[in-house]
Design goal:
The chain is α/β, with parallel strands linked by helices. Helices cover 39% and strands 14% of the residues. The protein is globular, with a radius of gyration of 21 Å. The model has no long low-confidence stretch (mean pLDDT 97). The structure holds 4'-deoxy-4'-aminopyridoxal-5'-phosphate. 4'-deoxy-4'-aminopyridoxal-5'-phosphate binds next to helix 3. Its cofactor is pyridoxal 5'-phosphate.
Length: 364
């Protein structure tokens, strides 16, 4: 039987990194710490309460969750202008991104990003029949803003998508860089929405501001976040976005009705109420990240400047061999980024000790 599969999907594999049961799973930038018992209890209680009403559809507009997210952004990123109408959320920031492409992409339209970057970006574009175009990052993985501005003005993308901190490099954008992108986006005939994907924002070093702080100055700037990383809630699937109301209203049009289950809403709200406890784990991960970067540098590796919970390091003549050698020793990392580089997610101190000893053995 022939299936009428879209030609561009023929032969493609579904996206996803290996899910292997090894000692140190350091390949998908998860938070290595399970939610603490107080948070587990709060989530269990909230879900129990939600279960009593599961015969009904959930709050389609998830107003209480949006209010909690607005409050969290105020505390975490010093953004005090955010109201419920400025917040969007979906099942992971992956779904938020898909909504953005459904609303602002589409046939005959273009999304511009900067390589190397998150490997799902071309998939959102493919799935919404949007053209995906990349410009290369500089050798240090920062953006060449003059080149980006020229490309935006010349190509007229309807979406510009930049991860900050970037995956897999860890590179954060300065506010000057964001203003620079916005200046060019404002010149695009027909409009251009610039999305800063801040999935790893909470891990940034002190003094690196969130792009959300300058949303009041830019009508077409949107900042996406997730609870998958800092909140240790990758399994809960909750991503969100902050933007001006017209952007949010456009996303409301393309979402499926009741896309956020009552269980998801309850889980996310319970975790948000405990963000201070979860922040302590983030601080530990940042410290471990800085130690890992220092150790790798001491070993003679080049390590990309990172504001995230992972580090890209190299160069290796044969990175596959190093990846396999680590895996044989119970350490799963990621072969990603430019040829010769590897990415390691930051785990617990014990996991990182295993990573270090395994790397020493493999490269001895
Ligand atoms: N953006 C970036 C840059 C990511 O690395 C990831 C996850 N690896 C996501 C978005 C998606 O995360 P989630 O859907 O879990 O929110």
């Amino acid at each position: 039987m022939t299936l009428p599969l879209r030609p561009e999907l023929i032969g493609l594999e579904p996206y996803g990194a290996p899910q292997l049961d090894v000692t140190a799973r350091l390949n998908v930038n998860e938070n290595p710490y399970a939610p603490p018992p107080s948070v587990v209890d709060a989530i269990a209680q909230a879900v129990r309460k939600a279960a009593e009403g599961l015969n009904r559809y959930p709050d389609r507009d998830f107003t209480a969750l949006r209010a909690d997210l607005a409050h969290y952004l105020e505390v975490e990123s010093n953004v005090d202008f955010v109201e419920v109408r400025n917040i969007w959320a979906a099942n992971g920031s992956n779904e938020v991104m898909l909504h953005l492409h459904q609303a602002f992409g589409g046939p005959g339209r273009r999304v511009l990003s900067f390589a190397p970057t998150y490997s799902m970006y071309p998939e959102y574009a493919r799935d919404t029949v949007t053209d995906y175009v990349t410009l290369p990052r500089r050798d240090d993985f920062t953006l060449d803003i003059a080149a980006a501005q020229a490309a935006i003005r010349e190509m007229g993308p309807s979406l510009v998508l930049v991860a900050s901190p970037n995956n897999p490099t860890g590179t954060a954008l300065s506010l000057d860089d964001v203003h620079g992108l916005m200046a060019a986006a404002d010149d695009v005939e027909g409009g251009c929405v610039v999305v800063i994907d801040e999935a790893y924002a909470e891990f940034r070093r002190a003094g690196v501001p969130s792009a959300a702080t300058i949303i009041p100055e830019h009508q077409n700037l949107a900042v996406s976040r997730t609870m998958s990383k800092a909140f240790a809630l990758a399994g809960g699937r909750l991503g969100y976005l902050v933007a001006h109301e017209p952007v949010i209203d456009a996303l409301r049009v393309v979402r499926l009705p009741y896309h956020l289950s009552a269980v998801t809403q309850a889980t996310a709200r319970a975790a948000l109420a405990h963000h201070r406890e979860l922040q302590a784990q983030v601080d530990e991960i940042r410290a471990e990240r800085d130690d890992t970067v220092a150790w790798l540098t001491d070993q003679g590796y080049t390590v990309a400047e990172t504001d995230a919970n992972f580090a890209l390091f190299g160069p290796f003549e044969d990175r596959e061999r190093v990846f396999e050698g680590l895996l044989e020793r119970g350490v799963l990392i990621r072969v990603t980024g430019p040829e010769g580089w590897l990415r390691v997610s930051i785990g617990t101190p014990q996991e990182m000790a295993l990573f270090r000893s395994a790397l020493l053995e493999v490269t001895a």
